[in-house]
Each structure stands twice: as C-alpha cells, then as structure tokens.
Hints:
Layout: H1 6-11, H2 28-38, E1 44-45, H3 64-80, E2 84-86, E3 96-102, E4 108-118, E5 128-129, E6 132-135, E7 138-144, E8 147-148, E9 150-156, E10 162-168, H4 169-182, H5 193-205, E11 212-213
Parallel strand pairs: 1-11
Antiparallel strand pairs: 2-3, 3-4, 4-9, 5-8, 6-7, 9-10
Amino acid sequence: xxxxxxxxxxxxxxxxxxxxxxxxxxxxxxxxxxxxxxxxxxxxxxxxxxxxxxxxxxxxxxxxxxxxxxxxxxxxxxxxxxxxxxxxxxxxxxxxxxxxxxxxxxxxxxxxxxxxxxxxxxxxxxxxxxxxxxxxxxxxxxxxxxxxxxxxxxxxxxxxxxxxxxxxxxxxxxxxxxxxxxxxxxxxxxxxxxxxxxxxxxxxxxxxxxxxxxxx
Length: 216
C-alpha cells in the first residue's frame, strides 16, 4: 500500500497516495450508496439550455448547501445511469462535478471535484484515444472524439481541501468531459459540424431513459 499523507487524510474527505493524488477507489459502493440515500434525484438539463453553454461560477462556500447538492448529484447520476455529472447538468451554476467511473483496468473511481482545472500534459504523455463519447445532456447520441488517454485534474473536495485526481482510459475521458461542462463546453462542441449535426439528429430521434428538462 502506498504511503499516505496523514495530515491531508485528516483534513480531506479522501486519503491521498504518496504523490498527493486522492485514493478514490476505496469504499466506493458504501460512499456512493450513502450519498444517493441522502440525495434527491433531479431531471437532467439538455443541450440548448443556457446554463450548459457558459462558464459556471466558482464554488466559494463549502457547507451544508454544497453537501446537499453533491448528494443530489450522486442521486441524479444513479438515476440516469451515468458515470459523471456536472452541476450545470441539473441546472446549478457552480463548478462542481461528481463521478463514479471505471478506468480501462476495471478499477472503480468515485469522488467529487470543485473548481476543477485540467492540467496540461507534456507532449510525451499525450496519447490520443478516439473512442465513442456520450453525454447525459445529449441523450441517446454518441460520437467518436479524440482525447488524451491520461488526465490530471486539480481542484477542491466538497470540504474545500485542495485535491488532485488522475485517471487513465475511460476515466481520463470522464475527467476531461466533466471539466469541460463547467467551462461551458459539451463534447459535441469539439466535433466537426457534420458530426455535431449527426449527434443532434441521434438525440432528436431517441428517447431518454431518464427525466430531462425540456427547453422552451
């Protein structure tokens, strides 16, 4: 087992490894289940709603209201069968996302990031993966999108403690996707015009498996 930063462990929600990254693969089921039990599932906001298309506000208050939002986000994510959810996807203009996502090795990662910043990778670490990507806010649509297969996000946990999260493969895609949301970008914004049009057509022809907020 990696050596842990004892001071950070007592201060933060999750312990960290000897490089300072959160250990988000421990007690996943219990942590996620507890959050879902405390939370209330909310409908998902879909593409076209203004809250999805602008940068969200920084989280500055780390109290009971944020804790309830995080629980509601986990509950909403569970209902929609997602692996990541940003606050603006349930209509809340704050920089926070939750995740419950496997990596390509099958390890389950569960956690919360407030005020995330995606770190620039050195050129030698930028290996692109062009797997399919989808989004709860663009229901029933998928498209291939090239993203680095390794990602590091810095930010704060739900108590305001500084954290670092890293992921590979599918989880790296999740970290990049959710951080994008909080800066006003959907994955379809990174597609060509033709691919974006095709994704929106898929959405128009599909039926979401969860409740969504209809755009006026």
